[in-house]
Amino acid sequence: MSSDKDIMIEAVDVNKEYRRAGAIIRALADVNLKIKSGDFVIIQGPTGCGKSTLLNVLSGLDLPDSGRIIFDGENIARATEDRLSRLRRQKIGFVFQDFNLVNTLTAIENVESVLWPTVLRQKEIENRAISALRDVDLLDRKDHFPVQMSGGEKQRCAIARAIIHRPRVILADEPSGNLDPQSEKDIMDLLKKINQEMETTILVVTHRDLSAYGDKTIRMDRGKIVSIK
Ligand SMILES: Nc1ncnc2c1ncn2[C@@H]1O[C@H](COP(=O)(O)OP(=O)(O)OP(=O)(O)O)[C@@H](O)[C@H]1O
Ligand SMILES: [Mg+2]
């Protein structure tokens, strides 16, 4: 029997509904899953099946209607907003389809911005940001603004921002959704490298077939998990 200490995130009987114009949408229907520490998990399914909703409840950005979310041993379905935001700042790195970079900040400032406000000295922040940019092979673009970077470069910058605080978990929602096939491969290879070298647990949501990159693929359809392989 595997110890529960190895489990990074667990969802138990999670349900979430949305009501719109009198109709009820079951965005998550009796979802149960266990993500082991260090796993690289692909969550795949068609548009509207509940993938983003799942990531949002797993990270406490959104609350389930019922069920439990155990994140690193803590039931976050009952945590206060303060506790949740601290947990996200300390333990999670987020990566989005549209990069979510701040256009008025350079690459290195975007990466540093996750640590603000902070008690760290500026030199220490800068050293960490440089190290994160080196990890994603983007140091030569550190003073570029987002408009001066390609899509693939912007996503690598966003990944540097996601790893600067050495999170236990990276949650990536369609990280290659706006990228060409070569950049998609580069980004997935980079996430794989981070997973292996930093032992970061990684969940990648996608509607494409990226299962080759994962240790495990969770398939969803209409709010339900239909297979875990
Ligand atoms: N705030 C909301 N209000 C009402 N309905 C919502 C809301 N957010 C999501 N939904 C509905 O819940 C379902 C799941 O949405 P979700 O965004 O999780 O899907 P998804 O799998 O991420 O889709 P996509 O691949 O298009 O991003 C959809 O039917 C969506 O329309
Ligand atoms: Mg989505």
What does this structure look like?
α6 links the parallel β7 (169-173) and β8. The protein has one domain: 3-Layer(aba) Sandwich (Rossmann fold), CATH 3.40.50.300. It has 6 helices and 10 strands. It is globular, with a radius of gyration of 18 Å. It is α/β, with parallel strands linked by helices. The chain starts with 6 loop residues before the first strand and ends with a strand. The mean pLDDT is 95. The chain has helices at 51-58, 81-91, 107-112, 122-135, 151-163, 181-198; strands at residues 7-20, 23-36, 40-44, 66-71, 74-75, 92-96, 169-173, 201-206, 216-221, 224-228. The protein binds adenosine-5'-triphosphate (ATP) and magnesium ion. The site of magnesium ion has 3 residues, from α1.
Structural key phrases:
10 strands; four-stranded antiparallel sheet; binds adenosine-5'-triphosphate; Rossmann fold; binds magnesium ion; six-stranded mixed sheet; 30% strand; alpha/beta; 229 residues
Question: Topology, pairings included?
Answer:
Elements: E1 7-20, E2 23-36, E3 40-44, H1 51-58, E4 66-71, E5 74-75, H2 81-91, E6 92-96, H3 107-112, H4 122-135, H5 151-163, E7 169-173, H6 181-198, E8 201-206, E9 216-221, E10 224-228
Helix pairs in contact: 4-5, 5-6
Bound molecules: adenosine-5'-triphosphate and magnesium ion.
